[in-house]
Structures are given as structure tokens and as C-alpha cells.
Amino acid sequence: MKITLNGEARDLNGPSVQDALAEIGLGAAKVATALNGAFLPAAARAETTLKDGDALEVVAPMQGG
Amino acid sequence: MPVFYGTAVESPLMLGTAQYPSPAIMAQAFRASRAGIATVSLRREGGAGQDFHNLIKDLGIPVLPNTAGCHSVREAVTTAQMARELFETPWIKLEVIRDDDTLCPDVIALVEAARVLSDDGFQVFPYCTEDLSVCGRLLDAGCQVLMPWGAPIGSGRGLNNPYGLRSLRAHFPDVPLVVDAGIGLPSHAAQAMELGYDAVLLNTAVAKAGDPVAMARAMALAIEAGQLAHAAGAIEARDMAAPSTPLFGMAVLG
């Protein structure tokens, strides 16, 4: 399906968010996710199915002031 | 030592983790200054996040994630929720920015976001202005600490409004207050502590200094000096001279 991943158009198999993370090599990474602008807890990734047009944000700890 | 939401912090220096020449120098700056809290952010994972997370954990001090760059309540709330899960802390440095040139907080959205997050169990550290009524609203919203700016983030201009910061201290004597942003020199940090502030949050002044490790230490020393001075009680400034050496007993020689 065609989704927007961190601002870039991607074609991923899914079907769940957890599957998509594994597909892009972040299956075991310490990341947080938001789906269409709303927080998606880690515990809900496996049961959340992606659909065409979804916007998925995947963030990680980074430097900050 | 400052106490934030019931947690005693080892040092009144809160130090950012951005803009250092290298991760190793950042870690050295933290060790040299014995900073009490490290501020961090969340950004799109491009591969560097996992190593950075380990580096931060190795510092061994509490982490304060921020919502830097957020311009709306929704963005800030979602970012805070992601930060709580990633860093496993209810603490959030809440930034909601209105203007990109000054990085001036949008105080209306800030109060709204602070209420949403406090109601959801967050312990909010709001990056705010020194406005008394805005600060009062933030406390009403559930905040138990206030972080007014000294000057715009990264400007290094010091305390633009010492009068306003002093008023805020006097108005809320029991609320932990932190000067956040605008510090350029150790003397600025000392001044904040002399005013009776509980802590100082800075980043650029250390990270972009010629020698960040030495500047980190200088900031820590200045903060300690300012804290001691506040506790010691300063004299009142006056316009006329007042001789410190006694006049009584002076020899008549002319």
C-alpha cells in the first residue's frame, strides 16, 4: 500500500504498523510512532492496520535543548 | 538543590545535548559540569537515534524531553506522548512556538497544551515568558514549575528583563523557577541564581563555545556562586559612595 513514511512516499506491504516497521529495518528499534498525527502506542502497532494514504511518523531520541 | 515534581535533582544546571562538536565532547561537558538534567528531543529516525539513546542513558542523570519545534497544541501533545513512551518519563519540557525569528512561545497555546498534558498525567516544564498572568495560568493548568526565557533561544543575550524575572520570583516564592534560554555567559547564569531562581537551563552557550567542556565547568561554577550569593543576602545598591575603611582614628597629616 502507498503511505507517507516520515514525509516520504513509500510502498510497503504491511499490513500492520509493526509489519511496516520490520519491513524498513526498525522492527526492534527504540522508536515512537504517530499515525495520521495521533500518537500510536507501541502496544497497539501489531493490531493497527495501515491503509492507502496513511501518514506514519517514526521518531527516535535525538539531541535537544 | 532544586526539587521538580517531588524529585530532587543533584545540580541546578540543566544542560542541553544539541550542537556539540562530537558525542564524546558532549559527554565530557556533562561530566565536567555535573549537570543535573539532560534535555533531549525526538526526531524522525534516520539511523542515529539508537546510539544517541545509549549515550544519554550512560550519562546517568534524569532526562527531560522537549517538544521543540512544535507550533500547535496537537503537535506538542502528540510529541509529548511519544516522548513519554520512548524515555519512560512523565516529564516534558513543553515548547509551543509562535514566531520563528524570536522563538517566542505561543503562550495561549502553551496554557492549553499544559492543561491537556497535566490532565493526562504529565509533569509539565513550560518554556514560557516572564509574564505574571501567563505564569499564573500555567500554574492553574497544573504546572508545578515555570521556565521563563532569559532571552530568545540561542541568542546569548542574557537576562533581557531582570525586573520581570525578579517580580516573578517575588510573586511565586514557592514555585520552582528556571531561567530557560538566552544564556550566553557564566555571569548571566550567576545573575539568574542571584535573583533566587532554582535552576538554569542552557545549551548553545556551552555547545558552541570554543571549548565546550571548559565552558560547561565555568557555567557550573557560576551557578554555584550565584546560588551561594542569593543565600548569603546581597547588599542594596546605592548611588553615593560609603567608605568601607573606618574614618575614626585616621591620623591628621596635612
From TrEMBL, chain A:
Highest taxon in the source lineage: Bacteria
Pfam families: ThiS
Gene3D superfamilies the UniProt entry points to: 3.10.20.30
NCBIfam families reported for this sequence: thiS
PANTHER family per UniProt: SULFUR CARRIER PROTEIN THIS
Protein name: Sulfur carrier protein
Native organism: Paracoccus versutus (Thiobacillus versutus)
UniProtKB/TrEMBL annotation, chain B:
A Gene Ontology molecular function term of the record: thiazole synthase activity
Keyword annotations: Cytoplasm, Schiff base, Thiamine biosynthesis, Transferase
Any one cellular-component term (Gene Ontology): cytoplasm
Location in or out of the cell: Cytoplasm
Residue ranges of every copy of the Thiazole synthase ThiG domain listed in the record: 5-246
Active site annotation, chain numbering: 93 (schiff-base intermediate with dxp)
Stretches that traverse the bilayer: none
Family matches, as HAMAP family: ThiG
E.C. numbers: 2.8.1.10
Taxonomy, superkingdom: Bacteria
GO biological process, one term: thiamine diphosphate biosynthetic process
Entry-linked Gene3D superfamilies: Aldolase class I
Catalytic activity line of the entry: [ThiS sulfur-carrier protein]-C-terminal-Gly-aminoethanethioate + 2-iminoacetate + 1-deoxy-D-xylulose 5-phosphate = [ThiS sulfur-carrier protein]-C-terminal Gly-Gly + 2-[(2R,5Z)-2-carboxy-4-methylthiazol-5(2H)-ylidene]ethyl phosphate + 2 H2O + H(+)
Residues the entry annotates as binding 1-deoxy-D-xylulose 5-phosphate: 154, 181-182, 203-204
Protein name in UniProt: Thiazole synthase
Pathway terms, separated by semicolons: Cofactor biosynthesis; thiamine diphosphate biosynthesis
Assembly and oligomerization: Homotetramer. Forms heterodimers with either ThiH or ThiS.
Protein function: Catalyzes the rearrangement of 1-deoxy-D-xylulose 5-phosphate (DXP) to produce the thiazole phosphate moiety of thiamine. Sulfur is provided by the thiocarboxylate moiety of the carrier protein ThiS. In vitro, sulfur can be provided by H(2)S.
Pfam families for the chain: ThiG (PF05690)
Family stated for the protein in its record: Belongs to the ThiG family.
